[in-house]
Amino acid sequence: MNEDDQPDVNALIPELKDWNNGEGIDAEAWIGCMGNAELAIGYSLIFWPKFVRFKNYIIRAGLSNLDYIDGWEQRCKGDRGATESVVNHLHIVDIHSYGKNGTEAQIRYLGRTLKHIHEVKLRSEFPDLKFEVYFNDEPGLDIMDYQLTFWQID
């Protein structure tokens, strides 16, 4: 993602055009009307995730359960990258798994944004390590198949 990747916010948030008696509203004003502090805090945990060192892995905070990691380590035959990849994966639709999932365009936008955030944050917190951050950003996938993950590379 770079500065030239300006999304069509009105296409991603179609409701914007309906506000203000049909005159529309910008995304920041819409957030001010629709959001709340609790949602903002919750989203901050997704959009600026915490990472931890656990064993020889870098994983998203909250996943550092020895049995869980050991199980994946065994299934992945000790391959650190494969283990980290599966442990750290996030289905983008799971962000709102009990609500409205979103369109393909919305999910792909969120995935690209989260990919960029993960790249920046991992590089900032672990400057001595290198990571592959992967989002399968291709059109036409089943909405459940859009996933983000990361792993260390040697």
Written description of the protein model:
The model has no long low-confidence stretch (mean pLDDT 92). The chain contains 6 helices and 5 strands. By secondary structure, it is an alpha+beta fold. It has 2 domains: 1-35, no CATH class; 50-153, no CATH class. The protein is elongated, with a radius of gyration of 18 Å. Strand 1 (51-54) and strand 2 form a beta hairpin.
Any chance you could write out the topology, listing elements then pairs?
Layout: H1 9-12, H2 27-34, H3 37-47, E1 51-54, E2 57-60, H4 66-75, H5 80-88, E3 90-91, H6 104-125, E4 130-135, E5 147-153
Antiparallel strand pairs: 1-2, 3-5, 4-5
Helix pairs in contact: 4-5
Name some characteristics of this structure.
154 residues, alpha+beta, 3-stranded antiparallel β-sheet, two-stranded antiparallel sheet, 5 strands, 42% helix
Write a short abstract of this structure.
By secondary structure, the protein is of the alpha+beta class.
